[in-house]
Design a protein that fits this description.
By secondary structure, this protein is mostly helical. Helices cover 68% and strands 6% of the residues. It folds into 2 domains: 3-123 and 254-282, Four Helix Bundle (Hemerythrin (Met), subunit A) (Up-down Bundle); 201-251, no CATH class. It has helices at residues 3-26, 31-53, 57-78, 84-93, 103-135, 137-150, 152-168, 173-199, 235-241, 256-271; strands spanning 201-204, 214-215, 219-221, 224-226, 247-250. α1 packs antiparallel against α2 and α2 packs parallel to α4 (84-93).
Length: 284
């Protein structure tokens, strides 16, 4: 592995470890941490390209990577899968991950990292939700019954389709697996929703509110209303809420550990020379 690649991976690893610690400790990732990683990564790429490589391609690949991950980070953010800090951390990794001179090779690396991230994220999310579910089992059980009654009609519709797919599956095996998936999906959704409602909503003193916290519901204060938005609380919102005794806050799962695990797996994969062949199948 080339020296410049090792430097970028070690740089990113140190930053992601700091981000993970901060996310676990404070439930947020500071903007300066994410922005400084981008600046250091692109700055290193620029000067290394200029003085060592004699070509700016190494720098350009970093810019392209940052642009692609900037779009991905915003898609995850506005799709309400990421909080702001997670989205910015995703964007900053775009300046790190492209290590090849060929655009399509880097694109395959991006694709592989996203697959890794989604796979690790699914396992991590399930384990965390299981931990909270076991810890708050009595509340979870009550909430699951509430959600079951609330979505009973949708579940019946899903079960009808699942039964049809299972019957067709006796003739075409692919539909059998599809039927199992459709059968399990609504119950998995209700479980995740129940964990969210029963375990991730807390009554918090206004003195403990932090920038970006998510309100569970709109709060009316006199003639003003503090709205529960995906962007979270602003400093002005927190100032207004100081007059309240308690505030309902929705806490999300800290996702920085997923970045750390996925990035380490990517590093190990690259170190052992894994061959990416997604686009080569199309003749690129």
């Amino acid at each position: 592995m080339a020296v410049e690649v090792i430097f970028l991976f070690v740089l990113a690893l140190i930053w992601i470890i700091f981000a993970t610690v901060e996310d676990i400790r404070t439930r947020e990732i500071a903007n300066w941490l994410n922005f400084s990683l981008v600046i250091f990564a692109l700055g290193f790429r620029f000067f290394y390209s200029l003085f060592e490589l004699g070509s700016m391609n190494f720098f350009y690949q970093g810019l392209i990577g940052y642009g692609i991950f900037f779009v991905l980070g915003n898609l995850f953010y506005y799709g309400k899968m990421f909080a702001g800090g997670d989205a910015k951390l995703m964007e900053s990794l775009g300046a790190i991950i492209p290590i090849y001179n060929n655009f399509y090779s880097n694109l395959e690396l991006f694709f592989y990292f996203i697959l890794l991230f989604l796979f690790v994220g699914a396992i991590y999310g399930f384990l965390v939700s299981a931990f909270y579910g076991i810890k708050n089992f009595s509340r979870l059980r009550k909430e699951f019954k509430v959600q079951l009654d609330k979505h009973r009609q949708n579940i019946i519709i899903a079960l009808v389709f699942a039964s049809l797919f299972l019957i067709i599956g006796f003739f075409y095996s692919m539909f059998f697996y599809l039927g199992l998936f459709v059968f399990i999906l609504p119950y998995f959704y209700l479980y995740v929703k129940s964990v969210d409602e029963a375990c991730m909503i807390k009554n918090v003193s206004p003195s403990k509110l932090t920038l970006g916290d998510w309100l569970y519901e709109d709060v009316k204060i006199g003639r003003k209303k503090v709205k529960a938005t995906w962007d979270g609380l602003t400093l002005e919102d927190i100032e207004l809420l100081k007059n309240k005794e308690k505030v309902l806050i929705r806490y999300g799962v800290q996702f920085a550990p997923v970045f750390l695990i996925s990035f380490i797996l990517l590093f190990v994969t690259v170190q052992f020379g894994f061959s990416f062949s997604f686009f080569s199948a199309f003749g690129f």
